[in-house]
Amino acid sequence: MTNSRTSGRPGEPRIDGGRRGVLVGGVALAAAAAASRTASAQTPAAPKGPYRSQSSWLVEFTGHKGDKGLAYYARPEGAGPFPAAVVIHHAPGWDDWTMEVARKLAHNGIIGIAPNLYFREPGSPDDQAAKARADGGVSDDQVVGDVEGALAFVRARPEANGKVGVMGFCSGGRHSFISAGRIKSINAMVDCWGGSVVVSDPALLVPKRPVNPIDYAKDINCPILGIFGNDDQNPDKAQVNKIEEVLKSLGKTYDFHRYDGAGHAFLASERPNYRPEQAVDAWQKIYAFFHKSLA
Questions:
Q1: Of 164, 163, 200, 195, which Cα lies nearest the Cα of 177?
Q2: Least buried of 75, 120, 122, 288, by fewest C-beta within 10 Å?
Q3: Average pLDDT over the chain, rounded to an integer
Q4: What are the CA-CA distances from residue 169 to residues 97, 194, 226 (Å)?
């Protein structure tokens, strides 16, 4: 495996490198509390080891225009405080892969919250995704409003340290880029192969997506990590080059990693494009980036 890296920080030169889840009434409550104390006394303390325990559950958040939606919330065990990241799902929807990403973050000491951007549609998550995609996707304004709601939810949690990043895959990478440009409180952004960040055909700028995402680059004030496969077609090498060119010209802090032998969705272990060696390397870079940027 080879991976090329480029980074940009104000005042620094470009760097090239290689490798790299009611009780009510006083009597009932008292009984429950006593039982809980007894159970706690009988449960041995968890042994220390190299892996972190975690908890995950579904939560309700307030999204765009006050709409109530569901999100998957995964947090490391312990008092914290922990950094956090909003996981923006890809075009196929709010699926097992999205939940896996949130859990992987929690396993590595980072709260992950993954909002369902298609929650307004009826049916199962698969039905919602099919309906949303048939309708041409969701609007950028709606996504940004939902991301803001997820940010507000996690910042209000007692185990969170207040620093929250965003990360997304495919269309979610594009949405991460847009969100980082429009939401000033985002502290870090990870773009994993975000497609159509650079739009060269004006006909593709439609009412739901009226602004070329690269035009938001000037408004991004947080550090950026980019993860790309050199065999990808959207974004292809030329598009990634263009994104980097713009970020560099604006003096933005960014770090791009491009992997040979990898295409679109190469981190997704459930898909045929999965590339384990490149994925392991990329995940380590993601964890390190968030811990550094969200400390």
A1: 195
A2: 122
A3: 88
A4: 10, 6, 11
Q: Which of 140, 146, 191, 232 is catalytic?
A: 232
- The whole-angstrom separation of Cα 256 and Cα 244 is 8
- Say how far residue 78 (Cα) sits from the centre of its chain: 22
The candidate with the shortest Cα–Cα distance to 292, out of 36, 109, 155, is 109
Q: Give the model confidence (pLDDT) of 46-91 as tens digits.
A: 556 666 789 999 999 999 999 999 999 999 999 899 999 999 999 9
Cα separation, 108 vs 189, whole angstroms: 17
Provide the sign of the torsion angle of the four alpha carbons 98, 126, 273, 7, taken in this order: negative
Is 192 labeled as catalytic in the residue annotation?
no
| Catalytic site includes residue 264 | yes
Name the active-site residue from 170, 175, 191, 192: 170
CATH code reported for the domain at 3-21+52-293: 3.40.50.1820
**pTM, rounded to two decimals:** 0.84
Tokens of 192: 């994993």
Task: Please name the residues in contact with 85: beta carbons below 8 A apart, sequence gap of 6 or more.
Answer: 105, 110, 111, 112, 113, 164, 165, 166, 167, 188, 190, 290, 294
Q: Where are the domains of the chain?
A: 3-21+52-293
Q: Give the pLDDT band (50/70/90) at residue 163.
A: very high
- Residues in Cβ contact with 93 at an 8 Å cutoff, skipping those fewer than 6 apart: 116, 118, 125, 126, 128, 129, 132
